[in-house]
Amino acid sequence: MKNHILSLLLLISVSMSAQNLLFVPDTLTGASISLRVSRDSVQFLPGRITQTYGINSYKYFGPTLILYRGQHVSMSVTNHMGDTTTMHWHGLHVAAINDGGPQSMIMDGMSWQPQFTIMNNASTFWYHPHLNRKTGIQALRGAAGVIIVRDSTEAALNLPRSYGVDDLPIVVQSHEFDSVNQINPRAMSDSILLVNGTQNPYVNLPAQVVRLRLLNASQERTFYFGLSANKTFAVIGNDGGLLAAPVSTTRISVSPGERAEILVDLGGMNGQTIYLRSYGSEMPSDVRGGPPMIMPGGNTMYSPLDGIDYNILRINVTAATANPVTTIPSSLVSVTRLLEANANMARRIEFTALDSLSMDGPFYFNQQLFDMNRIDYRIPLNNTEVWTLYDKTMVAHPFHLHGVQFQILDRDGNPPAAKEAGWKDVILVHNLETVRFIAKFTDFPDPNTPFMYHCHILMHEDDGMMGQYVIVDSTLGINDIQAAAPSIYPNPASGILNIDLSSTESISKMQIISSTGQLIGSYDRPARQIDISSLTDGIYFLKIEGNERSDVRKVLVMNR
Ligand code: C2O
Ligand code: CU
Ligand code: CU
User: Ligand 3 center to residue 219 CA distance, Å?
Assistant: First the structure.
């Protein structure tokens, strides 16, 4: 009997541990890049097939974009998702109109063609949809991919950079599937891990120094990465670029949206096996992934992955390649520090909840939910700003800023650890912690198109833990800025479109124009309301002509 149970257990553990070769997406590069995002499906689990989104030839996730600093790229994103979407280049320093935020909607069947110059340092970024309230479902179903930026400074270093050989994207997601095997965008008890979309993955890596580009693309789980047997590795890069020097460590925390590049020295290990793991037992309880918090009443969100240590990726070490990298460099790049003495503006954002004990939200910034018609900050061009983040809620939140990279000044008054002292665009803020960062807003003034900042726990973001800022060229003067932005609401609109003329003088004419440029309606005097009930659904432009300038606002009409 005992033997029977034992062999049954063995059988289960063997079938559960069936290993699959890690999928490494192909790369796309060049001056023009086309992404076609489509509805698809994947058999992730026995039984019902899982609805997914795939990009180009893939059924889930997309190709890796390799871009070069200084290069001009024309993107084309075609939407065949059966739903409206947007596409955001997370971490790239591009103008707001090219950033793919919630305003830049791509209707089903339509394309979007942003163009921009790559201005970032060599690092690992990613792309994913950013539709208001639907970022979670769209990104988690696979409408996302990795972006690798290369530059001449990085190229001059002796670092692994053979994609798929000694330099790999490692995109980790933990999913919760519902009772009919569909991905739950509000997962709180996620338990299925995917690495580059592969379940139970293994990878063969050569016995030399290898580079892993860790990206956490999960809904809410933070990973505390380490290697089995506590093997040390070197952190070489944060979200927005390489560090000044590699930092040798045994752990690196990567919260949703964050990236970390690490070097692992597999020299002399041919034939051995190690694991990339997450050490949940070592994380604090306020972080999703740490030991579950015991709440009053005992009603606790709980995932079987919380508070435990588990394998994420099996690494089989194979023979070294020709010309391997065999040493970890002692220094990398010079990271210019932004100095607090040069800051000319301070802002403070408190993370709040209506119920201070809430663990699943909704969570707020300064007690306010996201409103597409409210600009939270107007940031003068070339400002250097210190932002203070203070988390008053029970749970930690990964705060993400679009448009620019920032540097951490301090956590509760202490300078950041060396492994997070580089350029960042996501920062995990713990319960009752105060984090200050510094950023300089050097480019892309545009009073009409906002950049986002938000929690990168996708459920929190979709629930409204998001705000928006515009960069204004203060040489224009405040009146011009106000006049340039009559707010229209609601947007999306149905039936009636309202125009707030209170801050706008001297409007002579308004026109509604279709997305193909056809004039739909013309209004000679400023109207506060326009009847749009007879329009078919889609994107329209409202052209507002004033005596001094004219403005075009995009409106999404959804009458059905
Ligand atoms: Cu990764 Cu606002 O996004
Ligand atoms: Cu982003
Ligand atoms: Cu959050």
Answer: 10
Is 546 within a domain?
yes
Give yes or no for a contact between 114 and 100, defined as CB atoms under 8 angstroms apart. Answer: yes
- 524 domain residue, yes or no: yes
**What confidence tens digit (pLDDT) does each residue in 188-229 have?**
889 999 999 999 999 999 999 999 999 999 999 999 999 999
CB under 6 Å to ligand 1: residues?
Answer: 88, 90, 128, 130, 257, 400, 402, 452, 454, 456
Length of the chain: 560
φ, ψ of residue 418 to 5 degrees: the values are -55, -35
pLDDT at 479 over 50: no
Report the largest interatomic distance among the alpha carbons of the chain, rounded to a whole angstrom.
90
Using the mean position of ligand 1's atoms as its centre, give its distance from the Cα of residue 358 in Å.
24
Atom of ligand 1 nearest to the CA of 461: 2
Q: Which atom of ligand 1 is nearest to the CA of 466?
A: 2
User: Residue 259 CA to chain centroid, in angstroms?
Assistant: 9
Per-residue pLDDT reduced to its tens digit, 152-194: 999 999 999 999 999 999 999 999 999 999 999 998 889 999 9
Positive or negative, the CA dihedral 66, 70, 74, 80 is positive
Q: Looking at residue 155, what DSSP letter applies? A: H
CATH code, domain with 524: 2.60.40.3080
CA nearest neighbour of 305 among 456, 203, 172, 155: 172
**Residue 420 three-state SS:** helix
